[in-house]
Amino acid sequence: MEELKEKLTSSSARVEYRGRIAPSPTGYLHLGHARTFWTAYERARARGGTLVLRMEDSDPRRSRAEFASAAIEDLRWLGIEWREGPDVGGAFGPYAQSRRRTFYAEAWERLRALGLVYPCACTRRDIALAGQAPHDEQHGGDDEPVYPGTCRTRAYVSSASGPRGANWRFRVNDGEEVVFEDLKQGRQTFVAGRDFGDFVVWSREDVTAYQLAVVVDDALMKITEVVRGADLLKSTARQILLQRALSYPAPEYFHCPLVTDERGRRLAKRHDALSLRSLRASGVGAEELRARFRADEC
User: Exposed/middle/buried for 92, CB within 10 Å: 0-12, 13-18, 19+?
Assistant: First the structure.
């Protein structure tokens, strides 16, 4: 706990711009990733700031070392440079989530002590059958069924051994508005209990959930601006609630419009033809891609 507090000391006095790119090594990077990461690089460079590379490999079932190595190679080929990362080190490491479990466990313990998380026994099927669909017409693809609160009031025995064995959910205040000004998308408003419900911060497989991991990492790495895709706008609302609960400073946010395929579908890692690996193999050059990103600016 003390180590966590020390890393946050004087964070409110930040003046240096610190951005980050955070690939998840579950497949090869595609064109959408590349444009977003290039935008993050350009914004950091324009401000004379520091760009951090963080490998978001917290899920051991899906992450692969070969994809992590490929991401670093592809990003360097594209021309992106970073000052801190798993390959170059830095003052706020480790820079791979698989090596940061202690920090996440400390944050989970703080949330538990505050009574803000609870263990949930519901399966995905249970939640789907509850029939609460996400209200996501306006804000993009970061959707999941709104949790009906089934386990909110169940009695449970507090575990001293950590979060293993249950899905631990963060308890939201139904009806609370989360409002933030996105530097690209403008003013955003989400309502807890309507747009999203109690969300998982630690899974029963003993894996830190995305929402908690990135909040802890961005705070401890003193990130001042997060550049990512517009499909994560709703995640930002969830993360703001975690930041408030943990007394973390909030970075600014810049959400890029999504890159889509010829059918208008947002890109995913299954779009192998538009992966940087495939584009490179087909003879597309880095300067050609950079020119395309400049013309189609986020």
Answer: middle
CB atoms under 10 Å from CB of 180, counted, come to: 17
Which tokens in the block code for residue 109? 């313990």
Check if the beta carbon of residue 24 is closer than 8 Å to that of residue 63.
yes
Report the alpha-carbon distance of residue 124 to residue 133 in Å, rounded.
13
- Residues 37, 56: Cα–Cα separation, whole Å: 14
CA distance 68 to 28: 9
Instruction: Give per-residue pLDDT as tens, 61-95.
Output: 999 999 999 999 999 999 999 999 999 999 999 99
> In this structure, what token pair is assigned to residue 28?
């090869």
Q: 193, 146 in Cβ contact below 8 A?
A: yes
- Contact predicate 26/60, CB 8 Å: no
Helices 233-246, 101-113: axis angle to 10 degrees equals 70
pTM recorded for the entire structure: 0.88
- As a whole number of angstroms, the distance between CA 37 and CA 184 comes to 15
> In sequence order, what DSSP letters do the residues of 6-29 get, joined into one string?
HHHTTGGG--S-EEEE---SSS--
Q: What angle do CA 218, 220, 221 make, to 5 degrees?
A: 65
* Domain 2-295 superfamily per CATH: HUPs (3.40.50.620)
- Cα distance between residue 175 and residue 119, in whole Å: 22
Give the residue extent of every domain in the chain.
2-295
Distance, in Å, from the CA atom of 227 to the CA atom of 183, rounded to the nearest integer, reads: 9
C-alpha–C-alpha distance, residues 288 and 298, integer Å: 17
List of the chain residues with pLDDT < 70:
1-15, 131-143, 155-161, 260-273
